[in-house]
Amino acid sequence: MFPVYSVHAVRVGVIHADRCQSVHGSAPGTMLDLPVYIAAIEGNGHKALVDTGLSDPQKWSAGNRHIQPPEERIDAALAELGWRTTDVDLVINTHMHYDHSGNNLAFPHAQFYVSRAEWDFAAHPSNAQAWTYELDWTGPDLTYLNYTLIDTDDYDVLPGLRIIQTPGHTPGHQSVLVNTAEGILCVTGDAANLLDNFAIPMHVANFVSPRDALASLEKIRDYADRVLVNHEPSIHNYQSSGFPTCPEPGTRSA
């Protein structure tokens, strides 16, 4: 029997953005308040995070407005669970964009898991994505040795906690499968921004490979019973059960 983990969706900010940025090819003009969720996972003697979320919201507000009230800063947001940053021993970055890795330096005691393809791409990103990687992921207390770089698919961090490669949004994007009391939950990262990405189906607008991005959506659909989509507005802060199933293809219009 695999360990059963509890998973909480923890909001660490909001991005005010057009829906067309989350669903490639959709008509512009529908503005959304997109939550920035990280996943706090507890079980088997560990406290783990999938992504570390947004920091310094003003830095990123030149295009879309970013909002982060004090209670959604990383320390305060985790404190609602009774966690301190020093309690976290494992962190999985789905990818290294600013809203998914912005608080990495707050966890110097953790071991991080990043795909090698993402680590290499983040060092020399394409022009279209370069601005999303303007961060430092190492410092005096968090070094390269804190990062485990993954070269394979189906990487088991712990029994019942598996990383799968879901490229397309970035070359080294990965998602996380978690064994929960309600079945296998996939923390999608930006393989999907919204449930609409599964329902249409259509990948996010910021991508490096549309073919890979669509294949990653179907891979998640095949593997997961439920999904925690990190920017989905219908998920609520500190939700820990009843995460949605993947909508069937063709159930929503573009």
Q: What can you tell me about this protein's structure?
A:
The protein is α/β, with parallel strands linked by helices. It is built from 5 helices and 12 strands. The strands form 2 sheets. It has a 7-stranded mixed β-sheet. The model has no long low-confidence stretch (mean pLDDT 96).
Name the assembly state. Answer: single chain
Number of strands: 12
Ends apart, CA distance between termini: 41 Å
Please name the CATH architecture.
4-Layer Sandwich
Radius of gyration: 17 Å
Largest sheet: 7 strands, mixed
Helix content: 10-25%
Q: What is the count of distinct domains?
A: 1
Strand content: 25-35%
Shape: globular
Number of helices, where a helix is a run of at least 4 consecutive DSSP H or I residues: 5
CATH topology: Metallo-beta-lactamase, Chain A
Describe the strand arrangement of the main beta sheet, using strand numbers. 4-1-2-3-5-6-7
- Please identify the structural class as seen in this structure: alpha/beta
SSE inventory with pairings:
Layout: E1 6-18, E2 31-43, E3 46-50, E4 65-67, H1 74-79, E5 90-92, H2 98-101, E6 111-115, H3 116-123, E7 147-150, E8 155-158, E9 161-165, E10 174-180, E11 183-187, H4 195-199, H5 210-223, E12 226-228
Parallel strand pairs: 3-5, 5-6, 6-7, 11-12
Antiparallel strand pairs: 1-2, 1-4, 2-3, 8-9, 9-10, 10-11
Defining key terms:
12 strands; alpha/beta; five-stranded mixed sheet
In short:
The chain is of the alpha/beta class and 254 residues long. It contains five helices and twelve strands. The mean pLDDT is 96.
